[in-house]
Structures are given as structure tokens and as C-alpha cells.
Automatic annotation (TrEMBL):
Residues 87-331 form the SAM-dependent methyltransferase TRM5/TYW2-type domain. It comes from Methanothrix harundinacea (strain 6Ac). This is Methyltransferase, putative. InterPro entries: MeTrfase_TRM5/TYW2, SAM-dependent_MTases_sf, TRM5-TYW2-like_MTfase, TRM5/TYW2-like_N, Trm5a/b_N. One of its GO terms (cellular component) is cytoplasm. One of its GO terms (molecular function) is tRNA methyltransferase activity. One of its GO terms (biological process) is tRNA N1-guanine methylation. PANTHER family: TRNA (GUANINE(37)-N1)-METHYLTRANSFERASE (PTHR23245:SF36), TRNA METHYLTRANSFERASE (PTHR23245).
């Protein structure tokens, strides 16, 4: 076993790092992760400066030379098909770009858990962020049960939004949660942020306007034995008054139009509460435009927004990225007439 490049991380942060490394294409799939006490050693390929910066926002790590066992070579869809196929798996359904029968057969052969292959007929669209699909192979359905971070989610891909591509981001937000804190998920969908943070000890109010999403969210709360979550079918904008100054944390995962709800989120946040704001941004202005939206909304709401973190969550479309801006809402400082936002009494 020769020494190769590795990333040493704390065990409890291992999954966040592993997923991000895979997304970056920096995880070495030919080698096995090694465990030693409280640390994990991840086999990696060379990291660019940007990649190191991105990783340092996830937590502490050391770059090391380490020895890793080799993975057994696995059959892949690409290997079987002789060309690339673009797909993702949600529960036991593969979502394939294009109704390609050959690719569907290869997916079913390689991924033994896949029972249905469907292909999008539309983009994610409308207020409820849903899309329509056509059946390609296997069973003809859009309902499934997906597992993520130890929780199970009933999903209907045609009736309510869900993507597994935000799994790492959900884990990052969950890692910030303190037991007993109050959180509002304004656009909860079938619950992948809300239920995960509830499991980590947050008292959650989860809101969605889509009745099908809310029905699945209730089922998912039951499925995961989360009994104390407040689940509301409502327009998030209408709840700002009722939940004013209640939240230590607000999640705004409606990236195409979250900016329209910034005022409501700032109202719902307590003094010092943190908002996770998601947007789709062009690569030549990743954070400038949305930072300005946050600052304009803060000024209109009479609060101060302290930017805590700006990050890229995933690539969304050519030259477009799904980004996140975490900011703290300071109310007392603003009411007292300015100055630098501080922790307060
Ligand atoms: C991008 S999805 C995110 C769902 C979920 N947070 C997730 O990560 O899977 C946005 C959700 O916001 C809901 N939505 C859209 N407008 C809304 C509004 N005004 N009030 C509440 N929910 C809304 C949609 O129905 C959809 O389920």
C-alpha cells in the first residue's frame, strides 16, 4: 500500500466532507476511507485552492499523506453502456435525462434497488416547483420512499418538490442547530430540512403552500416519529405577523423567488436569529446581487443583516449556481440607532 493524498477530518463531520468531495470530483473512488479513533481519513485527488477554501467552510481538516486500501472495481452504468448517461436516484426510482431505453436497462442492471426509470417532460416549474415525467422502464410510478441522513421520506416526484442534491447542505444546516432552538422552515416541501433539524433537537414550524407537499410532510413526520412539529399549509408571507420574533433560525429554500420573502423572514427571526437564504445566481455575480437584496430588505425592515457565510451549494445550470447566504438579523442594534451589530445583552 503506497501513501497517497488524504483528508483527515473528525468522524462526526465525515459525511459532510465525503459528500462535498464527491460533488467536487475530488474523492478518490478507487480507495477506501480509513477510520482511526475519532478521525476519518478520506482518500482524495489533488485539491485546487478554491476547493480547499470551499472545504474549510465545512469544518476543520488536515491534508495528509496516508495509506488506503483499494476498492474492489464495481460495474458502472457507463461501463455497461459504453457511454455516459445522466441520471439520479431517488428512493427506488431513477430519474434519467431523456427516454433512453438502453440507458434505463443499464441503470436497472447496475443499481439493483432501482424499480422504475422515469424521465422529465418539463423543467421544475410553477409556484409549487414541480415537474412532469414520462415512464421509461420498470414500474410506472412517481412515488417512492427515499432515505437521507437516517430519515425516511415518502416522495411523489410529480406532486411535490424533492432533490437529493441538497443532502450535504441540509447536513451543514443541521450541524449548526442547537437543542431547543426555534426554527421556521418557510418553504418546507416534503420536509427534508425541517425533519432533519427537528431530529437534531430544533422546535420546528414547517410551512408549505402546496397541499400535496404538506400531506407528504405530515406522513413523513409520522414515519420518522416526529410528533412535536407544527406543520402548516399556508403562504409563508402570511405567517410573518403570527410568528414575529420567534425564530432562532429561518430556512428559505425557494431559490428563484426567496428575495420576495426576505422581509417576512426578517420579521420572523428573533434578534440575533440566523436566516439561510438560497438563490440561483449567475457565475459572473455569485453573491453581489443577492447580498444587495438582503441589505435592501434589512434597511426596509429597519434591521441590520450581518452576513455570516456565503457559499455555493451546487451548480444549477450552465453558468448558474445555487448559492446560500447565511445572515444574522440584528434588531436591537438597529432600533438603538446603528453602530456595528454586536451580541447584545
Ligand atoms: C424548492 S422547494 C423546497 C422544498 C424543501 N425545502 C426541500 O428542500 O426539498 C420550494 C417549496 O416552496 C413551496 N412554496 C412556494 N411558494 C410558497 C409560499 N408562498 N409559501 C409557502 N410555500 C411556498 C413550494 O410548494 C415548494 O414545496
Amino acid at each position: 500500500m503506497a501513501s497517497t493524498l488524504g483528508l483527515k477530518v473528525r468522524r462526526r463531520e465525515g459525511e459532510v466532507f465525503r459528500r462535498r468531495l464527491v460533488e467536487m470530483g475530488a474523492f478518490d473512488p478507487g480507495r477506501k476511507i480509513r477510520s482511526e479513533g475519532e478521525d476519518l481519513y478520506m482518500p482524495i485527488l489533488e485539491l485546487s485552492r478554491e476547493a480547499k477554501e470551499e472545504l474549510s467552510s465545512l469544518g476543520e481538516f488536515d491534508l495528509v499523506e496516508a495509506e488506503f486500501r483499494e476498492e474492489e472495481p464495481r460495474e458502472t452504468v457507463e461501463g455497461l453502456l459504453g457511454r455516459k448517461a445522466s441520471f439520479e436516484v431517488v428512493g427506488d426510482i431513477a430519474i434519467l435525462e431523456g427516454a433512453d431505453q438502453e440507458a434505463a436497462a443499464a441503470i436497472i442492471a447496475v443499481h439493483r434497488n432501482v424499480r422504475a426509470v422515469i424521465s422529465p417532460l418539463t423543467a421544475v416549474e410553477g409556484e409549487y416547483r414541480t415537474r412532469r415525467f414520462e415512464h421509461v422502464a420498470g414500474e410506472a410510478r412517481t412515488t417512492t420512499v427515499h432515505r437521507e441522513h437516517g430519515l425516511r421520506y415518502r416522495i411523489d416526484l410529480e406532486r411535490a418538490y424533492f432533490t437529493p442534491r441538497l443532502g450535504t447542505e441540509r447536513l451543514r444546516v443541521a450541524s449548526l442547530v442547537r437543542r431547543g432552538e426555534a426554527a421556521v422552515d418557510m418553504f418546507a416541501g416534503v420536509g427534508p430540512f425541517a425533519l432533519l433539524i427537528a431530529k437534531r433537537g430544533a422546535r420546528v414550524v414547517a410551512v408549505d403552500k402546496n397541499p400535496d407537499a404538506v400531506r407528504l410532510l405530515r406522513e413523513n413526520a409520522n414515519l420518522n416519529r416526529i410528533t412535536d412539529m407544527v406543520i402548516l399549509e399556508a403562504d409563508a408571507a402570511d405567517l410573518a405577523e403570527e410568528f414575529a420574533n420567534r425564530a432562532d433560525r429561518v430556512i428559505m429554500n425557494l431559490p428563484h423567488s426567496a428575495r420576495d420573502f426576505l422581509g417576512a423572514a426578517m420579521k420572523v427571526a428573533k434578534d440575533g436569529g440566523v436566516v439561510h437564504y438560497y438563490a440561483i445566481a449567475p457565475e459572473d455575480d455569485l453573491f453581489g446581487r443577492d447580498t444587495a437584496f438582503v441589505e435592501e430588505a434589512a434597511s426596509a425592515s429597519g434591521v441590520k443583516a450581518e452576513i455570516l457565510r456565503r457559499g455555493v451549494v451546487r451548480s444549477y445550470a450552465p453558468h448558474q449556481y445555487n448559492i446560500v447566504i447565511d445572515f444574522a438579523v440584528h434588531k436591537r442594534v438597529a432600533a438603538e440607532g446603528g453602530g456595528r451589530p454586536g451580541p447584545g445583552p
